């Protein structure tokens, strides 16, 4: 079912759709610099900065489930798209641009 939802997201999904994917088990990746990550990030996010290609390459080789859903975000969505392109080119099948951190925070489900 999750892959069906992914296939429907041909354009950048709304932040609320990204939250649905996150709640269903998507891995959340913050592609900003470690300094930006340290200044605030989603609690479930891992930092895989695009400005450190060695770290990105190391992380890519550790991904065991190539069909896992990944939601990437950054400051404005541009680096997240670049990250999506890189991950897709390296064989990850379900990569979503979550856009800007502020947009994701703005529609985070209330608990």
> Which structural category do the helix and sheet elements fall into?
alpha/beta
- The largest beta-sheet arranges its strands as 2-1-3-4
List the secondary-structure elements in sequence, H or E: HHEHEHEHEH
- Rounded mean pLDDT is 86
* Count of individual beta strands: 4
* CATH arch. level architecture: 3-Layer(aba) Sandwich
CATH class: Alpha Beta
The CATH homologous superfamily corresponds to: Rhodanese-like domain
Please give a quick description of this structure.
InterPro entries: Rhodanese-like_dom (IPR001763), Rhodanese-like_dom_sf (IPR036873), Thiosulfate_ST/Rhodanese-like (IPR052367). This protein has helices at 2-8, 15-23, 34-38, 53-62, 78-89, 101-106, and strands at residues 27-30, 46-47, 69-74, 94-100. By secondary structure, the protein is α/β, with parallel strands linked by helices.
């Amino acid at each position: 079912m999750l892959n069906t939802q992914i296939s429907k997201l041909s354009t950048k999904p709304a932040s609320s759709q990204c939250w649905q994917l996150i709640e269903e088990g998507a891995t959340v990746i913050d592609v900003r610099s470690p300094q930006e990550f340290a200044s605030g990030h989603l609690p479930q996010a891992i930092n895989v900065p695009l400005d450190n290609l060695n770290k990105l390459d190391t992380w890519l080789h550790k991904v065991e489930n190539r069909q896992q859903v990944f939601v990437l975000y950054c400051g404005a969505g541009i680096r997240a798209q670049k990250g999506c392109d890189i991950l897709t080119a390296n064989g990850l099948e379900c990569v979503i641009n979550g856009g800007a951190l502020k947009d994701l925070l703005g529609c985070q489900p209330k608990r």
